[in-house]
Amino acid sequence: MRRLYWFGPFLFTITVSVAQAQVSRLASSYLQRGNDFFARGDFDRAIDDYDVAITVNPGWALAYYNRATARHAKGDADGAIADFDAAIKIDPHYAAAYHSRSDVLYSRGDFEKAIEGYTRAIAINPRLAEAYCNRGAARKARGDLDGAIADYNQSLKIKPRLAAAFNNRGNALRAKGNLEEAIADFDKAIKINSRYAEAYVNRGFVLLLQGKIAEAEKNFEDGIKLDPNLKRQVEWLKGTPQTQ
C-alpha cells in the first residue's frame, strides 16, 4: 500500500506534465506559424493563429503580445491596446508590453499616457534604450524639448549606434534653434544607417533653414528616393522654410 500511495501521485504528476507539455507544444506551433504569417505581412492569418495559441494557453503573455503587434500593424489600435493590457495583467513586469503599448498610445496622440508607459518600461528594464528614445519623442511632442534631449542622451549612452536617437535628438535641437548641432546628429544617423530616409529629409530642412538651397534639395531628393512616401512631407517643409 505504501508503494501504491507514493506511486499514484508520481504517475499523476507525470500525466499532468505530459498534458501540459502537449498543450505547450500545440500553442507554440500556432504561435510560430503566426509569427511566420506576420513576417510575410499576412496579419489576418497571423491573428487567427495567435487566437488559437491563446485559446490553448490563455495564460501566455507572449501570445497576447504578438497578437497585439499584429493588430497594431492592421491599424486596430483599440484591439492592440486591449491585448497589451492582457499581457501586462498576466506578467506585470513585461517591459516590452508597456513599451509597445506606449507606441500605440503615441500614434494616437495620447502622449501623456505614452510617457507613463515608457517610464514604467524603463523602471522594469533601465537598459531599454528604445524606451528612452521613444519617451523622448513623446516629450518633444508635448513641447518638453529639454526632457526629450535628456532622454535621447540616455538612450545613446546605452546604445551608441541607435540611429533613431540621433535623428530624433537632431529634430529637438533644430526646434531649439541649435542648427549646427542638429546637422551633426543627422550626419551621425545617416552614417549609421545610410538608408535612413527621414534623416536625409530632416537634414535637408535644417540646410534649408540655413539658406543652403542646393544642399537641401540634394538631401530631399535622397530622402524621397529612399522613401517616396516622404514627398508630401518635403513639399510641406519647402512651403514653411522659416518654421523651426
Q: Which regions are unreliable across 5 or more consecutive residues at pLDDT < 50?
A: 1-16
Based on DSSP secondary structure assignment, what is the total number of beta strands?
0
Output the helix-strand order. Answer: HHHHHHHHHHHHH
- How many angstroms does the end-to-end distance come to? 85 Å
Task: Summarize the entry for a quick read.
The protein is mainly α and 244 residues long. 80% of the residues lie in helices and 0% in strands. The chain starts with a helix and ends in a 5-residue tail after the last helix.
Please specify the SSE layout and strand pairing.
Layout: H1 2-39, H2 43-56, H3 61-73, H4 77-90, H5 95-107, H6 111-124, H7 129-141, H8 145-158, H9 163-175, H10 179-192, H11 197-209, H12 213-226, H13 231-239
Helix pairs in contact: 1-2, 2-3, 3-4, 4-5, 5-6, 6-7, 7-8, 7-9, 8-9, 9-10, 9-11, 10-11, 11-12
Structure characteristics:
244 residues; mainly alpha; Serine Threonine Protein Phosphatase 5, Tetratricopeptide repeat; 0% strand
Polypeptide structure, described:
The structure is a single chain. The protein is an all-alpha fold. It has a domain at 11-90: Alpha Horseshoe (Serine Threonine Protein Phosphatase 5, Tetratricopeptide repeat), CATH 1.25.40. It is built from 13 helices and no strands. It has helices spanning 2-39, 43-56, 61-73, 77-90, 95-107, 111-124, 129-141, 145-158, 163-175, 179-192, 197-209, 213-226, 231-239. Helix 2 packs antiparallel against helix 3. It is elongated and about 65 Å long.
